[in-house]
Amino acid sequence: xxxxxxxxxxxxxxxxxxxxxxxxxxxxxxxxxxxxxxxxxxxxxxxxxxxxxxxxxxxxxxxxxxxxxxxxxxxxxxxxxxxxxxxxxxxxxxxxxxxxxxxxxxxxxxxxxxxxxxxxxxxxxxxxxxxxxxxxxxxxxxxxxxxxxxxxxxxxxxxxxxxxxxxxxxxxxxxxxxxxxxxxxxxxxxxxxxxxxxxx
Length: 200
Prior knowledge:
Blueprint: H1 2-28, E1 37-39, E2 45-47, E3 55-61, H2 68-85, E4 93-99, H3 107-116, E5 125-128, H4 135-148, E6 153-154, E7 162-163, E8 166-170, E9 176-181, H5 188-199
Parallel strand pairs: 3-4, 4-5
Antiparallel strand pairs: 1-2, 3-8, 6-7, 8-9
Helix pairs in contact: 2-5
């Protein structure tokens, strides 16, 4: 009987270890496809394969989000100040905020969102969405990004999206480095240390 318990226990442990290994390997190989192109808050085209000079901190939001999205954006503003103090923001690290609701979150809406947070409209922090005229195509482009990062989201029909709660750090080639909790769990120091470690 003890032998059966031992075998069962080992089976469970091996299964758990295999599951953890699967997710670790999956994350380590995650990469945003270089061909993905969206538009920014100014209506300019942004291609993920074009800029291979900076790390990117990727935040997924929708502007109608009542809690976790704006909380994360505010924490990223504080983090931005820390990066500016050491002269790496915009040079070694840039921020990308990508809407999961491109139909409502037009460039104009994203610009208003930025203004509400007093975020400078420049190339150091881009807010990405799709074109209304090509919304079906651009939603597919967006899905390539969220699928690559294993970021899940769904609109249950009331306009309030249910979504994953992670931000992502990717390297110059858009390959996954690390993920961090959104909202109150977003640890500014943890993200700062990880970015600076990669830069140095």
